[in-house]
Amino acid sequence: MSLSPFPKALLTRAENLLALYRDQGLMLATAESCTGGLVAGLLTEIAGSSDVVERGFVTYSNAAKQECLGVPEAVITGFGAVSQKTARAMAEGALLHSKADVAVAVTGIAGPGGGSAAKPVGLVHFGCARKGRPTVTRVKRFGAISRDAIRFAAIGVALDLLFEAVA
């Protein structure tokens, strides 16, 4: 009996992603804020993931984003922690501060509080950086669904970006 907190569909996608990266000899890193390490947790739920998952950064605070990933203070103060620019800087910073070939970043407002008219609960920005390629960003507005639903939906988008990075 599995005690995994992750739905079987996500576990299957994670297994497929790890196999794809393994076949291509690629390592990945995660840089997570609103998901609090759930993307890395999902990937490392799979036995043998250590040959693909290089490391994960949980950078919940602005200071951690700056100290661990090198996100410029000017980006956070100018655009906010939940922004396309911050997601891009997080993904690129994860590449620079690891030995990974691909890095995915997630930053958003999972709620139930903390949102505003400009940045409502359910707003999540993503970045995906791969060595030698332009960084890709994506934004999703999941709406004021539950905190868990926002975080798990964000995991799915992060997996999508990691798959696209090797397509």
UniProtKB/TrEMBL annotation:
Protein's recorded name: CinA domain protein
Organism of derivation: Beijerinckia indica subsp. indica (strain ATCC 9039 / DSM 1715 / NCIMB 8712)
UniProt superkingdom: Bacteria
Record Pfam families: CinA
InterPro entries linked to this entry: CinA-like_C, CinA_C
CinA C-terminal domain residues: 14-164
